[in-house]
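Handout, page 2. Input:
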Amino acid sequence: MPELILHHYDMSPYAEKVRLIMGFKSLSWHSVQIPIVMPKPDLTELTGGYRRTPTLQIGADIYCDTKMCALALERFQPDPTLFPGDPATTWAVSRWAETSFMMAVTIFLGSGGLFDDDFIEDRKKMLPGADFSKAKLIVPAKLMQLRSNLDRLEMQLGDGRPYLLGDQISLADLSAYHPHRFLDANPATKALLDPLVHVRAWFERIGAVGHGERRELDAKDAIAIAHDAKPAPLADSAPLPDGLSLGDAVVVMPEEPGSGVVAGELVASGLHEFAIRRQSERAGELILHFPREDYLVIKTG
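Output:
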């Protein structure tokens, strides 16, 4: 069975989502620590320029974005499932809950004290033209937006259910947990959490899931594993009305600014995900997998 390798850093909220999936599924995995700020040469050797955290590696297959990581881990270990009920509801709640992430980031930027100068300068490069100095002006509005999201979580849990969608953990819980994980680090956001008894109790239950069996791995060893592996066989793709054909030279453009553009050959194209092939000098042939949501794949030439 191929080994699971997560390229991440410990403070990453989105990486916490995938670490919790590992714990929920009782998986053993390798941890490759990546820099918080650019450059990230070993990571981009695998991704071709995509820089978001985390990235999941299974042999020579690279899964970008936590939505894609979740799908890959669900296939790798279907039981227990991340989708115990209605999949559409699970995806919808997951996507909505993660809107809290940028609310919290803006509050922390405006309040100061949490992010160091290197981190702020790196994120400015990701968002050219953004004036971070004005974040403090909208902190009150962002606090109200965040409180609104937290209130909906509190109402959802108010009937005594242990998890957001009922009696079983789902991807919705793990997606909703990570954006709120650091709210105690700021007095203003901690004050929003303190009165929410159901959310606090739910926090404890989700945090207790753990991270599975984690072992550290050097990035160069992860690249060597990719080099020595062959990408997994791809499922057949039905033709889609997007003007693309398998084998086309394409670029993948994340719709979130600053994530990094990746070029390669289109090798799979489905309704919910697609994949490209690229060659790496150090890692050899790689297949990069992306979710359809939030990513554009465009023919070049």
